[in-house]
């Protein structure tokens, strides 16, 4: 079946540091890939997405590139802010047929804390 | 903006009680989902519904059931609550065929504690 694996957390950084959160996946066919963010006390919000190989999703200074050869979708940001402190989830959505169609499969989540 | 509203933010229930978690969305979305969120496990799909009166089991349906009598409302039912169902429950919805563009819209969650 489909699965998503994220790097172990929590991640603690100082403001303006570089961020990488690793995400790898297992899926049949060509899934779409997503990063969601959950701020304290809130539900999940879509951060960025990529729907085919080599696509780069970007939003709010975050980027992730869909790498089919390494089945990865790592999240990066060049300079984090305190306001980026949240839980980040990598997810995939199967795109073609089967019982998994339309459903999101999530990774474990990575807690990011950014200190001033 | 699409809004997904979960009726309770916090709930405390006793073992063996029948528990109803309600979710309402206001944008005529066909698809609705119930996930539970646990530390280290991420989000796991309990049930989903493609449309009114339709339901499909997700990855962890045991101990749960759902009801979708109206398009805007998707209810999760714990038939006999147990302590291992203590968790954060998240409802989500999406417009059929638009998941690629807009992703899913999530509610703020219901934190359920079963004592």
Give a structural overview:
The complex is a heterodimer of chains A (116) and B (115). Chain A is mainly beta. Chain A has no helices and 12 strands. In chain A, a hairpin with a 5-residue loop joins strand 5 and strand 6. The longest helix of chain B is centred in the C-terminal third of the chain and has 4 residues. Helices cover 3% and strands 52% of the residues of chain B. Chain B is mainly β and 115 residues long. In chain B, strand 4 and strand 5 form a beta hairpin. Chains A and B meet through strand 5, strand 6 and strand 11 of A and strand 4, strand 5 and helix 1 of B.
Q: What's this, in brief?
A:
Chain A has strands at about 5, 10-15, 20, 25, 30-40, 45-50, 55-60, 60-65, 75, 85-95, 105, 110-115.
What's the layout of helices and strands?
The complex is a heterodimer of chains A (116) and B (115).
Chain A (H helix, E strand, L loop, with lengths): L2 E4 L4 E4 L4 E3 L1 E4 L5 E7 L5 E7 L5 E4 L2 E4 L9 E3 L8 E8 L10 E3 L3 E6 L1
Parallel strand pairs in A: 2-12
Antiparallel strand pairs in A: 1-4, 3-9, 5-6, 5-10, 7-8, 8-9, 10-11, 10-12
Chain B lengths: L3 E3 L3 E4 L5 E7 L5 E8 L3 E8 L6 E2 L6 E7 L2 E6 L8 E8 L4 H4 L2 E2 L3 E5 L1
Parallel strand pairs in B: 2-11
Antiparallel strand pairs in B: 1-3, 3-8, 4-5, 4-9, 5-6, 7-8, 9-10, 9-11
